[in-house]
Amino acid sequence: MYKVNLRKTNIERRKLRVRKKISGTGKIPRISVFRTNKHIYAQLIDDVKGHTIASVSVEVEKKVKGKTKTEIAFEAGKALAAKATEHKIKEAVFDRNGFRFHGRVKALADGAREGGLKL
């Protein structure tokens, strides 16, 4: 039981350490990533107004069968970049939300870059 609490507090500490250094605006929003074992979610957030500009989740991209979770995260990043271009957003700040920058989190960022966002 103790190890579960310790892991949770470590994730929260990493999350706060990252968040105190970055912030999103209307022109350069923050991409916040949340990852679970099955799904991955991403949002474009304007921290000045406190609004979510656009969001994407794996459930939308899960319709494609035969792909790995990393490939699905890459497609989700491209879908988020497409939504960002609809709102005339070309640049964003990446918030890994306490997760390590590799695997599905990195694939989502790479998909967003390929979709046209500058991170």
UniProtKB/TrEMBL annotation:
Single GO MF annotation: 5S rRNA binding
GO cellular component assignments: cytosolic large ribosomal subunit
Alphabetized UniProt keyword annotations: Ribonucleoprotein, Ribosomal protein, RNA-binding, rRNA-binding
InterPro entries tied to this protein: Ribosomal_L18, Ribosomal_uL18_bac-type, Ribosomal_uL18_bac/plant/anim
Taxonomy, superkingdom: Bacteria
GO aspect biological process, one term: translation
Protein family: Belongs to the universal ribosomal protein uL18 family.
PANTHER family registered for this protein in UniProt: 39S RIBOSOMAL PROTEIN L18, MITOCHONDRIAL, LARGE RIBOSOMAL SUBUNIT PROTEIN UL18M
Function: This is one of the proteins that bind and probably mediate the attachment of the 5S RNA into the large ribosomal subunit, where it forms part of the central protuberance.
Subunit structure comment from the entry: Part of the 50S ribosomal subunit; part of the 5S rRNA/L5/L18/L25 subcomplex. Contacts the 5S and 23S rRNAs.
Protein name per the record: Large ribosomal subunit protein uL18
Lineage: Bacteria, Katanobacteria
